[in-house]
Amino acid sequence: MPGFNPATQSRQQTGEFGYRIHPKGDKIDINAPDEPPLQDFRVVGYEYKVYRAPGGALLNGPPRPAGICYHCGSPIMHCIVIENPKTGEIVDVGETCAERVGLDLTALREMLRERGRAAQIEAEIERRREYAKSRAEQEAADTAAFGEHGTESRWDSGCRCDDCSTKAPHGRVERLTYGKCYCDKCLQGAIDSGKYYYEAVRKLVDLETNQILDARCVSTKYGLSWVVNDEDGSASWYPYAPKRRDTLTKRGVVEVNVKCLMRPYRYNDEPHVKEIVMLEAADTDVWGQPIQVSLNRNTDEPI
Predict the structure, then answer these.
(1) Does residue 37 carry a pLDDT above 60?
(2) pTM for the complete prediction?
(3) Nearest-angstrom CA–CA distance, 205 and 234
């Protein structure tokens, strides 16, 4: 350090903070007014130094500083790396001492801003690493005790992930939502949960097969219409809710009301409704003529 040799000079205690031990071996008083600054040094970097276990893992408990301030001898974690261009000496100082000893404040402040961002990123990476490690250990213990995900035993243990929800007991809304089971018990559980409701929805039926067509009701400049996408890539159009039944029957289709399970939701803060499953078709079409419509709903219990 230019102008001051701590190996040969020692100062008397003048303040309430007492002496600190300089890394080079002597005691210095950092509050002394004539303490020579590190004007020949420049900021070259930053390091976060804490004691770690073999392998690089953090030790248990709060982090313990592994750096030593070149100026005052205090243990430090946030180490500002400075270099003497004349001698090539590279040492660490703490943030407080760096501000006291005459370093370039512009460079120091810029470095501290960068260090703050880097420290935040490093802390977040470390937090995620520790969380992932903890989760992996807990997952291994739970698998050994209760079995793999997607089993009834894992559901009974309290896991409510998507896979385990497929094995929820019948009558639970989770069995319907994730397991796609539409048995009577699961349907009743869905209604009781308040998340679903029944609604009669108008559908378009193919009179030749008695199957419900995958038709959408769209708005056109002529009013509402049914549109059915054909296998060849074209589309077939039909009038929606015409006054005369034969307007549709002459084209081989007819409209029928179907009891459906619906679920409301919000998207972009707007209310929407999603059709979950068709449950039961009326035994007559919307004009009151008898009709039988084929419906299949998934269930792993007898309906």
Answers:
(1) no
(2) 0.55
(3) 19
